[in-house]
Design a protein that fits this description.
By secondary structure, the chain is mainly α. The chain has one domain. It has five helices and no strands. It has helices spanning 26-33, 35-49, 53-77, 82-111, 119-143. The protein is elongated and about 50 Å long.
């Protein structure tokens, strides 16, 4: 009978063949792509890390709150300083999403394997997120 104390627990419930992305690389996606892109990458990466479902929903909720904040800022500011304020909101959302992913990222680091490259996913998600936010803000302009 194997000893339960010596059974590995770090990899329990995690797909070891899929490598997650570095958490700090997601900051670039947040800065250049906005809240939608940041939330998309954080949600995908949390799945790669094996974050539980409740915390993954928290990542989505953070993104939704951030998107509502961007739309509210757009409605209040009317375009003045919008570029800076939307980036600030996106980076703040990223910081919350980073905290949610960090414990499982540390567990991944203990395994001693390399991170995956975010380039292949990050660039299209960054462009798509920026375009999606632009279209949402354009829709808000039309509705106002």
């Amino acid at each position: 009978m194997p000893d339960e104390l010596l059974r590995p627990t770090i990899g329990a419930g995690v797909d070891m063949s899929v490598r997650p992305w570095r958490l700090m690389s997601q900051a670039y996606v947040a800065f250049f792509g906005g809240v939608i892109a940041s939330t998309t990458v954080a949600f995908l990466n949390s799945g790669r890390l094996g974050v539980d479902a409740a915390k993954r929903r928290l990542i989505l909720l953070t993104g939704l709150v951030g998107l509502v904040a961007v739309v509210a800022l757009f409605a209040l500011l009317g375009g003045d300083g919008l570029q800076v304020s939307t980036r600030v909101v996106a980076v703040l959302c990223f910081l919350v999403q980073l905290r949610v992913q960090r414990p499982m990222d540390r567990a991944f680091q203990l395994r001693g394997t390399d991170y995956g490259s975010l380039w292949r996913v990050g660039i299209p998600v960054t462009i798509g997120g920026a375009v999606a936010e632009f279209l949402i803000l354009l829709l808000v302009t039309v509705i106002r």
